[in-house]
TrEMBL record, chain A:
Keyword Transmembrane helix in annotation: yes
Annotated coiled-coil segments of the chain: 108-169
Superkingdom to which the source organism belongs: Bacteria
Name recorded for this polypeptide: Uncharacterized protein
Transmembrane helix in keyword set: yes
Source organism: Emticicia aquatilis
TM spans (from-to): 69-88
Keywords, sorted A to Z: Coiled coil, Membrane, Transmembrane, Transmembrane helix
Automatic annotation (TrEMBL), chain B:
Pfam families linked to this entry: DUF4097
InterPro entries from the UniProt entry: Toastrack_DUF4097
Taxonomic path: Bacteria, Pseudomonadati, Bacteroidota, Cytophagia, Cytophagales
Domain of life, per lineage: Bacteria
Name assigned to this protein: DUF4097 domain-containing protein
Domain DUF4097, residue spans: 58-284
Length: 196, 319
């Protein structure tokens, strides 16, 4: 701490007219105070309440509506994203189940009962002929056709086991018809040869 | 007050009559729809969607059972698969229960994509009461190598260019606008191919095979079936080795082709103007027609069944 402040602090000489300037300012203040009292009073044309209301509405718009919209938006998109992930996962693992209706088409299964009697008659005839006239049945053509007929019978049995599982399914019934037609054709050919 | 209540009555009164009528109408409709509902099949479908990135050269094996298969070729590097497992019954709960017996499996490992379906009917369930079916809708990249095995269902392949092998029993195979290498084996399954290009080999038994506008080289083997060929000069070479299969050939102009036809124990039917090219020796009828110019060759051998050539001036490609 220095002993003499006068040694450190700079010397300052005020301007000569300082006091008169201060006095002038004080005089002006007194004058202004006196004059203000004489000024006429005016009612402002703006309704302050309305202004306040407007401000508050604006504030509401700004603070409530906009950020909420964003907030809801974010919430919704997050939910949507999560939901789609969940849905996607569900889709790829479990599949999507849907329902509809279709008109029922009657599938007739009386095919076998009708055909089998005439068929077995024909087969009986063929077997009988082959026993009686062995030479005819030694013909390669007859051998081939009989082998084919035996294969068709096997096919038919296979199909019957399928039908036992799947019921009268349209695709299986169609297959059954195809085998029957094929068998009929082969049988006819065989009988023609055996008769001639 | 009185006036008001009166006025409300008067406004309600006219609306009550139509509401009664409406109610009657609704109940009729309900009854009717209930009656028709009883005859309707409830279809329950489980759809599974998958997408796989296809690496060139890898094999796609579709081992299907009792399925309808729809294949479409596309210039893409992805395989898009939709599998639909379907059960139908008048009682929805039965269809729903039996749908659970239908399964599919997709494996994608070491360059092989294996897709298959099965019907696992528990022994306690006995005979299925629903009609069940599996449907595949697959988009595959062109140049892919695809093998399809199926039974009792329809297969269709459209706009595909690549390598395809199909082995199937019953049902039908439809090929439209396809090119590449084809190897088909069918037993009881009909084949229809239109606008096919490349190399086509088809071995069929007890099947109807029809080709419409085959280009490139075609080899058919047919037993106990029928073959119908609609040929245009875009063909390169067609060979048919058949037995007991009725064969029909349709062409716009006879002179557009070279014919080498033969059948044993049967006959060749041809327009009268070309009968001079027929010959018969030792139960074998042949037709040799050589234009001495470079024309597509049609070579057919058959037995016990006829070969028929038709000229149809209106025959046109469906492109």
């Amino acid at each position: 701490m220095p002993k003499d402040l006068n040694e450190i602090l700079p010397e300052f000489e005020p301007k000569a007219n300082l006091w008169s300037k201060i006095e002038q300012t004080l005089d002006f203040d007194d004058l202004l105070e006196a004059k203000i009292k004489d000024l006429p009073e005016f009612e402002p044309s703006i309704e302050w309440n309305r202004v306040l209301e407007e401000i508050s509405v604006e504030k509401k718009l700004k603070t409530v509506k906009f950020p909420n919209f964003i907030r809801w938006g974010i919430a919704a998109s997050v939910l949507l994203a999560l939901g789609s992930v969940w849905l996607f996962n569900k889709k790829s693992d479990e599949g999507v189940i849907s329902y509809s209706v279709e008109k029922q088409v009657e599938i007739k299964s009386d095919l076998q009962a009708n055909v089998s009697t005439s068929e077995s008659e024909a087969e009986e005839f063929i077997n009988q002929q082959c026993e009686e006239v062995e030479v005819v049945c030694m013909k390669p053509e007859v051998k081939e056709l009989r082998a084919e007929l035996a294969e068709l019978n096997l096919n038919q049995r296979d199909l019957e086991t399928q039908i036992e599982q799947f019921g009268n399914d349209p695709a299986l019934v169609q297959a059954q018809i195809k085998i029957e037609n094929q068998k009929a054709q082969i049988t006819k050919e065989l009988i023609n040869i055996l008769r001639s | 007050m009185k006036k008001i209540s009166h006025s409300t009555k008067s406004t309600q009164a006219p609306s009550r009559k139509p509401s009664l009528l409406r109610r009657a109408g609704w109940s009729f409709l309900l009854l009717f729809s209930f009656a028709s509902y009883a005859q309707q099949l409830q279809v329950v479908t489980k759809s599974i969607q998958k997408e796989i990135i296809y690496s060139a050269g890898s094999k796609i094996n579709l081992n299907a059972k009792k399925a309808d298969i729809i294949i479409k070729g596309k210039s893409t590097d992805r395989i898009s698969i939709v599998v639909k497992l379907i059960a139908k019954h008048t009682d929805r709960s039965i269809a729903e229960k039996e749908l659970s017996y239908l399964n599919y499996e997709l494996k994608n490992a070491s360059g092989v994509v294996d897709l298959s379906n099965s019907y696992e009917i528990p022994k306690s369930a006995g005979k299925l009461r629903s009609q069940v079916n599996t449907v595949y809708e697959i988009t595959i990249p062109n140049k892919a190598n695809l093998l399809i095995i199926n039974s009792f269902g329809n297969i269709s392949v459209n706009d595909f260019s690549g390598e395809l092998a199909v082995k199937f029993n019953f049902g039908k195979l439809n090929l439209t606008d396809v090119s590449g290498k084809f190897n088909i084996e069918s037993s009881f399954g009909d084949v229809y191919a239109e606008n096919l290009d490349g190399s086509f080999v088809c071995k069929s038994e007890k099947a109807v095979v029809e080709l419409y506008n085959p280009s490139g080289t075609t080899l058919l083997e047919s037993k106990y079936g029928s073959v119908k060929l609609n040929l245009f000069n875009s063909l390169d070479k067609l060979v048919v080795n058949a037995s007991r299969s009725a064969i029909e050939v349709n062409v716009r102009r006879f002179e557009d082709f070279r014919f080498d036809l033969g059948t044993t124990f049967s006959q060749i039917n041809t327009p009268s103007a070309y009968r001079e090219f027929l010959s018969n020796y030792n139960n074998q009828e042949t037709l040799l027609f050589d234009t001495k110019t470079k024309k597509p060759l049609v070579q057919i051998q058959n037995s016990y069944s006829p070969i028929t050539v038709h000229i149809d001036k209106n025959l046109q490609t469906h492109k």
